[in-house]
Amino acid sequence: MSRFLRNAALAALTVAAAGAFASAASAQSYNRLVVFGDSLSDNGNLYAATFNTQPTSPPFFQGRFSNGPVFTELLGFNAGRSAVGAPVTGSINYAYGGARTDSSAFPPGMRNQLLAYTSAGGTFGSNDLVSILGGANNIFQAVPAASVAQNPAGAIAPFAQAAAADINFIVNSVATAGAGTILVGNLPNLALTPQFNQGAGAPAAPLADFAGTTFNSALLSGLMTTAAARPGTNIILMDLYKIGPVLSANPTWFGLTNTTDACFNGVTVCAAPDTYLYWDGVHPTAAGHRLIAALAEDYLYYGDIGAQSTVQAETGFRQREDLLDLASESVSGRAAWQPGMQMTFGLLADSVETDARGPIAAAEAVGRGGRVGLDYVVSETFRFGVSGTFRTTDVEAGPMDFSVKSFAADLAVGWRSGDVFLNGAAGGSIDSYDNITRLTSLAPVLHTGQSSGHSLGARVQGGLWFDMGGIAVSPRAAVGIVSANVGGYIEHGPAAQYHYQERKMQAASGEISLRAEGGGDGMSFWVEGGYRDTFGDDSDAVRTGIAGNPAQILAREIDNPFGGSLMASAGVNAAIGPVTMTFGYRGRFGDDATSHVGAVTFRLPLQ
User: Fold this and answer.
1) How far apart are the C-alpha atoms of 178 and 344, rounded to whole Å?
2) pTM (2 d.p.)
3) Amino acid 607: pLDDT
4) Mean pLDDT of the chain
5) CA-based, 20 to 30 A from 468: which of 203, 550, 575, 592?
6) Taking a C-beta distance cutoff of 8 angstroms, is the pair 101, 110 a contact?
7) What's residue 25's pLDDT?
8) Residue pair 68/126 in contact by the 8 Å Cβ criterion
9) pLDDT surpasses 70 at 20
10) Rounded Cα distance, 402 and 502, in Å
11) How buried is 263 (Cβ within 10 angstroms: 0-12 exposed, 13-18 middle, 19+ buried)?
């Protein structure tokens, strides 16, 4: 329930702050916006070109084909209207209500929109974002004749394919001209719109849906070809078709009550427009456009949003370091070694807090587990032990939650001669990353996934002991190397379906510390403090793509949050008959993270 409430709160904040997030993210990635399209993107061009007559405003909002701003106005840019002579050097909108994809004269078809832009001196740069969305008007105009043809599907298919060819021509032209990023929208499920889902238009709904899916298939095929030929441009397909059934089936998720009817019927306006998905027969309300803008966010910033998955590898990496520390602890104390074999078992618990870093949100993890092993003292100078650990951890990392189950095996070896000692530990883990959820920008839609991974590591420590009147002090140093791998996976859901690539996080570290021990035979204690830092980081960048999409795989370099850590540990050994009980704590206080591990261990001699 707490997780549900947290996700609901995040959802509300995401919807409320969509515009602010767009502005911040756009400032990092895109310098300006150029728009080509039809009424879904028109910010008032047709209205200005028809002397403020089309569409009638009010009830239409200031020349938009809705009751508020359209989605392209919610992406964080103030795009001027081409119809009133806005300069082509800044953000500019060439979309016209009623536009086809071709070279129609008026409203200017989308090919003509592009021609008008370039003829006015417009160019494209590597930091430009270009929005291209159209094709519905071609289909709307073809449906009446095709619906009475002998073969309706065969009659309308050429119109849908020609419209897709126009869009692909425009995309290729813009990419060839040097645009950095192109956001291309496909067609939503036209059969779900009020124009086709009821009344006289209902019989044509299957034909409209067929035309839309034919267009979408041809569009995707062409975009894949263009993306392969134009690697300098990131072409992102925003799938409006896939999200339609989710909006229709779950209106209350988005604060809606009606996803089938038009708010404005041509005469009167409904009482609560913000609770309707459709403003008229085919156009979204302002609330609907906010949802499209939120969906666009999920596609446009997938590289930054997907980088949140770094917390998965960081969790596996940290846990492997923790287990190496625990394994080394068993052979690093001052007490004399008595030959023989002991069975060890215990419980451990841990927590970690990681700070926000660039696109990475703050994270919290809580874990627990159990350990069992054998410790064999060969002589007063040599011992070794093996242990197995099961561990489960729940992680909340901003928009991403997941759990990790780990099965680990570790080996520890110790040697001492007088006051000199040397020990080593090595081990590996098999990790299962389950219940992965990502709260998408289209809140409260959640995407899900799962992955697997493994980790390996080794640690060597050496030092000296000095007896100082009842207290033994040991300066010591250690080096280690840890590698954690998380397999690639594709999340499931109706928004931008992120494809996380396989990632390895690997680093070597060095540590210096000072330990003090005291006490008697029945009870003893220790305290230790030190500093650990990485001196070799060979970690992969976090790489994210979008499944089934021409979008490129984007990489984000993420620093190890535990680079440069103060170390502190303390513990008590208590002998209760033949059993030795140990209570221990180890804390790490890093540049961007803090962790705490507590363990209770029992050692039982085996006769």
Assistant:
1) 65
2) 0.91
3) 64
4) 93
5) 575
6) yes
7) 34
8) no
9) no
10) 17
11) buried
